[in-house]
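Thread: Newbie trying to understand structure tokens

Hi all, I'm a second-year student working on a class project, and my supervisor (Dr. K.) asked me to get a predicted structure for one chain before our next meeting. I've only ever worked with sequences, so writing a 3D structure as a token string is new to me. If someone could post the tokens and maybe explain what I'm looking at, I'd be very grateful. Here's the chain:
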Amino acid sequence: MTPPAPRAGQHRKKRTARRRLPMRYLLPSLLLVALLAMLMLRGYVHSEILADHRVQPPAPTTQVPPEVLDGGPVIDARTPGKAGTLRIPDHRIVLTFDDGPDPVWTPRVLDELKEHHAHGVFFVTGTMASRYPGLVRRMVDEGHEVGLHTFNHPDLSFQSARRIDWELSQNQLALAGAAGIRTSLFRPPYSSFSDAMDDKSWPVTQYIGGRGYLTVVNDTDSEDWKRPGVRAIIEQATPEDGKGAVILMHDSGGDRSQTVAALGKFLPQMQERGYEFTNLTAALGASSAHTPVSGFALWKGKAFVYGVGISEHVTSVLVVGLAVIGVLVMVRFGLMLLLSFLHARKVRRRGFSWGEPFTRPVSVLVPAYNERKCIASTVRSLVASDYPIEVIVIDDGSTDGTADVVEAMRIPNVRVVRQANAGKPAALNNGIAHARHDIVVMMDGDTVFEPSTVRELVQPFADHRVGAVAGNAKVGNRDSLIGAWQHIEYVMGFNLDRRMYDLLGCMPTIPGAVGAFRRDALDRIGGMSEDTLAEDTDVTMALHRDGWRVVYAENARAWTEAPESVQQLWSQRYRWSYGTMQAIWKHRRAVVERGPSGRFGRVGLPFVSLFMVVAPLLAPLIDVFLLYGLVFGPTGKTVAAWFGVLLVQAVCAAYAFRLDKERMTHLISLPLQQVLYRQLMYVVLLQSWITALTGGRLRWQKLRRTGVVEAPGGTQNRRNAERDRRPVA
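---
Reply by user tm_fold:
Sure, no problem. This is what the structure looks like when written as tokens:
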């Protein structure tokens, strides 16, 4: 992966980025649809949908012809109005095996038949044939006949004609894909002898006969499905007085070890008594039941079987992925709870300090591009600070008069620096060059500080080892659902993480909304880099590698305006995700270096990669398997497991809210956030991966601001905000 760096002047690419926006959704959406399709296909071929295992109660036999009730095990109803049966000639046995193929027992049954030069008929279900096509091919290659046993094994007496046609066609589709054949043999599920036909099953037999099939029941039941023992199976399978027979056995549906053992004795015994084990059509002197399939039907079958194979492998991979994400989620939450508790206990204990109180003036840099609606509130919040500061607003080529708004305020100690549009990193570097003080605070043009924010933010600089400090960024516009979701994310996912990373000494990001830097530290690493779209993450990693401590100041609160639409949120998180990948890739050599850089590379980079890139990519598997379990699996256990994960998340979120002294009412939307918001973040991250791996180039996209956030963190009434923005007559 070699993520490209952004170009200067990226703000001007907004229109191009918008034209490309639909493509951002397309590929991740297609991958998600493909994933769901694979899971649906797996559930489909595992008889987890459309299966119907009901067995009909006894019914009258008034509609069944007497010659059928008193006839043989092969029922020929292919000619309308004419129904007859066929019997197997003496000293011939047609061994039939139902419900397979099974990956364990069918090969052993085939081995026994091959060893004794015997043949039989395997009535396969479409679900099993599509999952184990190699066994069906082996049956055909070794001279056995294959018949249909429906696709999902339902009792057809309860099904419509449309469902019966579907069961037959899908069963044939699986055979075509597995062995390139069609068959004219059919055995109904739950069938027994011909005299068991009744007024419920006979119309089905007639209907299927009209479709060109011979219906094969049996006249000798080994009852191996009861597992009565090898001796009992042999006794019940043995025909009387040298008569021919269609013997019912099973090669699937459970433990068939007794069936296999019985075959090992039964086959040679009956051959010594002059019996021949043969296919059904051979016993009847008819042409083979198999017809080769070619052309589109063959390729359609192969595509189906191939798709089933992929779905099986995909599901196996997903199960492993689910196990991995389960472990990662629990490890992360465990670390977050433990380390955030230790961090809070450390910084809140009586007498804790970073050293002598830090009182030196600092410079506050506000890079701004088209922030006319927000910039006045931002500057006013800084002017209200209880700490000595100078404010430098760097206008990055705004076209909406942002700089004019600040200059018109005529506030002492607030300077405006204008520059041609060059991007946020260049604006910050320009601000650093104009700053008078050795500590620089950086904030976004849509953010407001509380009066104590700067003072709280700079206190850690009393420790000369601290090179940067991360503040506590909060969502100011949390009155909407999407704002509430981001509020939960900020409190739990960002600030709780920062407590953990602080103690681990590998803070990945100083938030652009509220961060402070030692100027000497920035000079040593070359200032704000323009190599990535996440300049805050990039510079933080560079500081770690240079040996500086990066810490978290929980009381340095800043209120930022979060995106208020899905499209704006997508643009922001897409840039964040992609920029983080760029930063990880840029600093990858830290893994093999020595000293502070190596410590960060072997601790910080794996943590960041695992918990910010890999884990979020796998997290939606929890919801995917929830959906899968609701539709196909054990619903109760699936729901219980999902709520268990949600409970763990809720505990972490509640603890994070308690640490930040936030109202718990916002957590009401946590379940919905986990279902919907997480999927959006997943698609964003997936798109970032695709962009990085394909060498795509991502630009900055400027978000629309409303200017509704005010200090100390409340949200103005929108009507009042609009009124305040009206020009004075």
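A couple of things are worth pointing out once you decode it. The radius of gyration is 36 Å. The chain is about 50% helix and 15% strand. Feel free to ask follow-ups in this thread.
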